[in-house]
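Hi all, long-time lurker, first post. I run a small reading group and we've been trying to get comfortable going from sequence to structure in the token notation. Rather than ask abstract questions, I figured I'd post a concrete chain and ask someone more experienced to write out its structure so we can walk through it together at our next meeting. Sequence below, copied exactly:
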Amino acid sequence: MPPRGDIAPGRIIKAVLSGELALVTRSDAGDLVMIPEVDRASISDLHKTYKDAVRRTEPPGPGGRLPRVMTYHSFVTTFRFAIILGFVLPVAEEAMDPSGPELLGIREGQVVTQTRRLYSLTPAGGNEDDAWGNLRRAYEQAPLSSIPEDEMAYSITQVQKMIATLQEWIEQSENTLQNEEAKTSPNEDRIENLTTRIESLNAAHDALGEIEPT
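-- Answer (accepted) --
Happy to help. Here is the structure in token form:
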């Protein structure tokens, strides 16, 4: 699925970390400010910069509605692809809110100061161009040998979870279909829809099973 809006978030990430685009962040007073020529940034500030770029570039929708932008959660997922591909790497940590009071959290049973990572562009990321236009596609097309073992293990775990979920959906749909067929006056449209759904779920299940390691 392409990112919302016409501006690829990956291109904004590269432009900021290469110093070509000013970083949008918040001042001590809470106002949005622009900092030019940075070489490192947090994911949250990169997301602010992406949203600002979209809203400055794309026209409002009907009734003056703001342009649609990628959510922070989806942006983090997209940024993760850049990490896996070796385009960015963490170079420092700072307080979660540098201008505010210290924020505390629990990590491994200990009370610690909450921090956020700052990322910089790698030489590989700086030399790459096309992949930044669609980081998800670049990740999906990357050779498996280029993906770190820990990321591969994470991906395999996600596939296994999806297979288990699909299996559960298939069983639920088959039970519903059997109950519908057992009725004195079964709903033929419902039976047809359930049959189509089961076929689609089975196809997805089989496709995932082909990439799951044995």
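A couple of things your group might point at:
The chain has seven helices and six strands.
The chain has two domains: 9-142, 151-211.
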